[in-house]
Give the backbone structure.
Amino acid sequence: MTPHNRAKKGDIAKIVLAPGDPLRAKLVAEKFLDQSRLVTDVRNVLGYTGLYKGKEVSVLSTGMGGPSIGIYSYELYNEYEVEAIIRIGTCGGLQSEVGVGDLVFAMTASTDSAWAHQYNLKGTLSPCCDSSLLLSSIQTAQDRGFTFHAGMVFSSDLFSSYNALGEDSWRQWARLGALAQDMETYALYSTAAWSKKKAFSILTMTDSCVSKEGLADTQRIPALYPMIETALETAWGML
């Protein structure tokens, strides 16, 4: 056990799906997993382990932001011997071709965070995803007809709508090719690299910074299903 996770060794599977929202973890456990059981609920950060097509998979919420996912991913990799974490999160679209509800596969992440300062590097770290998880997800999305985009995401410490630099501060990142903005992928990929483990972010674009379109409240849950299914199929293929 850790200060943030009351699961015991063996309670958590080798591959973990990682949504930010605790209720999304609960949704995955109840709707997509068989024989799911709650293994941790410290601070109401919910974690479950169950079976997907007969293979054990865990899902653990990680909260919002790089520091939060950094804590949970570090402990999963280094205390619970997890081999791979697949983030299943939402993001804001930064390109016109990324439609509301589309999947975004984060090949690499840029950031405005000081997260990588802890590594005492002499340059700028640009962490990337695990290629096997990326290729598996692409195959699943193609087989199921899900619309997806693969490329760079921008992980910010600042929620775009509350950014004091102005609501158009994302445009320079978009100019350099960022497909979408989230808050967690950079910290996850960096922690995976440091821990010599695997990580991948699959994101659902819920609100476009370009068109200002967004999912209606009634659409927000079902719009996540392609992302969840893709992540589970990818996890199943790695087990």
